[in-house]
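Technical annex B. To support the medicinal chemistry partners, we prepared a structural model of the target in complex with guanosine-5'-diphosphate, based solely on the information shown next.
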Amino acid sequence: SKLRKGLEKTKGSFIKNIETVVLGYANIDDDMYDDLEAVLLTSDIGVETTDYLMDMLRTGVKNKSIRDTNDVVPYLQKCIADLLNENAESIDSHSDAVEVIFIVGVNGVGKTTTIGKLAKYYKQHGKKVMIAAGDTFRAAAAEQLTIWAQRTEVPIIKHREGADAAAVVFDATASAKAHGIDILLVDTAGRLQTKSNLMEELRKMARVASKNIEGAPQETLLVLDATTGQNAVSQAKLFGEVVPLTGVVLTKLDGTAKGGVILSVKRELGVPVRWIGVGEGVDDLRPFDAAEFADALFD
Ligand code: GDP
């Protein structure tokens, strides 16, 4: 499958290295622990997740869930699946209100593409979708988004370049309500360099959205580029300070060996990974399923 193919490089480095190290030891001893820790630390899962997995491993050995080195990798697989699964229940909006989803992230991570893919996904699942071009700073952003809107046959609300992003949100939420839209996807500016401006802008957009639709935005998804490894995690922490996040979209998992970053994102941010991007095409976004992901990584 596309997921398995996408994760091949991550599997080939991260998982293969773990297996090689562990199975190189006849018994579980301090040397094995040291070697395994070194492998985990040089992968993209981060220090915190490494510590967590090492603790889990020692616990597993102590309570005899792990009896010899053959048990280590399957045990780690389960730990990783559980870790990814924590708090992963999706937000179920039981109301009839338009579900407003803000898409945030720095430029280049795949925000525009993700919005196009989400539009296609929701439409395919019987939802009425609308897009709001809330990144009024980059003219190219609205243009690209318009192409995606045409491609997926979804209406788009946009203003001229340099317009107030909150005004776009005001128009879009009003229009979405009037037209019985189910899902409103809102693009946002990705200028993290001007953190306080961005914070102010996103807050204003949220305020305006909730004025027209109670509880909006119901979701704020941060888009992160998996190929940037641990940089994605630092970016996520910064964004978390700017705006309350409900989930992460991890793009470009195809063709990177840094897929382990997904664990780091999950553990260090405490927000669930909701979607993963495994290619540039409109169908290359999938809801994140922890068990499926762990299976694809280990099998
Ligand atoms: P934005 O600046 O954040 O809006 O980024 P774009 O949506 O324009 O995407 C930047 C580049 O990343 C484009 O070339 C996309 O085709 C590519 N891209 C986005 N998502 C994925 C993905 O999941 N896999 C791959 N391989 N490329 C992606």
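Notes passed to the chemistry partners:
The pocket of guanosine-5'-diphosphate is lined by residues 107-113, 144, 251-252, 254-255, 277-280, 284 (CB under 6 Å).
Residues 17 and 190 are 36 Å apart (CA to CA).
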